[in-house]
Amino acid sequence: MEPKTARFDPAALISGWRFVTGRSSDDAASDPTVDLSTDHHQSGWWAPTWAPDRLLEGYQTLTYDMPDRPHHADEGDGHLIATLIRHHPPRQRRAVLYIHGWNEYFFQAHVARAFEELGYDFYAIDLHRYGRSLQPGEMPGYMESVEEYFPELDACVERIRDDHSQILLHGHSTGGLIASLYAADRPKTFVGVVLNSPWIDMQGSALFRALTPPIMRGLAVASPTMALPMSENELYGRSLHKDFCGEWDYDLSLKRVDSQPIRPGWTRAVVNGHDRVGAGLHIDCPVLVLTSARSSAPKQWCDDVMTSDLALDVDRIAARAHLLGWHVTLVRLSDGLHDLSLSRADVRERYFDEIRRWDLAYVRVRAWQDRVSRDLDQ
Q1: How confident is the model over 237-267, as pLDDT tens digits?
Q2: 204 falls in which pLDDT band (50, 70, 90)?
């Protein structure tokens, strides 16, 4: 998730922007915290065997080690890892790969069960610096481009392909942005893409959306890892966890009630991703976009907390959905939370029902037509 509930302090940002504009490019180039490298395609290898998952009973994990991806200078020694999670060994020829959002990790076992009922073996990735992949000293969730996740996603896809002939890609929030860009850059890889409240445009007023990209790009030159001053709002987090007002149990150190620190380098990566969406992605398979029917920004507990998206602007998502590809279905669900799969029972049942109908109407029919076409060509 990307909490709209965690708001930037405009005065602090403008002050930081003025600081940045006073620095020369030579100063930025000599700053050891600024990574000027653009080559994110480095090698790695998988652990030899699947191991029992330490967070979800009955699940298994496989670690992808990336020794050529060193830690940021602010993190100390070491290198990045990613983690692939599955419920059981392969049973179906179809599989789904799930990408979590910001301040997240995979814990939604009921989502895995829903896809298994649809005939998909379920896999999820905890991206580097998240969840099971987060190591001591790392900055949780930090990235400097969306594309830096592509090598570990490539490794996951290659691993899943060993046992499955069709892969569906599924992403939530920031994971929805990552999934969108990845699917666009990997044509003929996926049979479909499901996006749960994807963060494909900036929320906030028109002025905020206009000012945020240049300010963040400026700050990211000088201090990419600086924790931005923010006013926290814990309403969304409190609406989810069973220790507060929700029904879900998860590790509050890996998915915080408030938010992980927001940093300029990370925000620049997000707005660069938004720019790519705005230019049009041309994803070559059917895309399903699901959001809540409305967004809200309450300051205190009220009915809106449990019946709307508190993190993103769903109208902005809806306005951009058509830019994702040639075949896009948009569904908006009344009373949905930001993570629709964590909404109350009747809403999430509608959520899974919409995925089920879309899958039957477009993904499986298309796969059947492709098989018939191949048979005729032979």
Answers
A1: 999 999 999 999 999 999 999 989 999 999 9
A2: confident
Give dist(CA 290, CA 352) in Å, integer.
Answer: 10
Whole-Å CA distances, 38 to 23, 41, 64, 145, 297? 22, 9, 21, 9, 37
Look at residue 23 in the predicted model and tell me its pLDDT. Answer: 34
| Domain extents in the chain | 7-31+43-377
For residue 307, the model assigns a pLDDT of: 98
Q: Is the pLDDT of residue 375 over 80?
A: no
Q: 173 in the Ramachandran plot: left (φ > 0), alpha (ψ -120 to 50) or beta?
A: left
Instruction: Confirm or reject CATH 3.40.50.1820 for domain 7-31+43-377, answering yes or no.
Output: yes
Of the listed ranges 10-19, 84-93, 311-320, the least confidently predicted one is 10-19
Phi and psi at residue 239, to the nearest 5°: -75, -15
Distance, CA of 257 to CA of 51 (rounded, Å): 29
Q: State residue 378's pLDDT score.
A: 56
DSSP-assigned states of every residue in 193-233: EEEES---S--S-HHHHHHHHHHHHHHHHH-TTPPPPEE--
3-state secondary structure of 72: coil
Beta strands in the chain (DSSP E): 7-8, 45-46, 51-52, 60-70, 79-86, 94-99, 121-126, 166-172, 192-196, 230-231, 287-292, 328-333
Helix (H, G, I), strand (E, B) or coil at 184: helix
Burial class (CB in 10 A: 0-12, 13-18, 19+), 235: buried
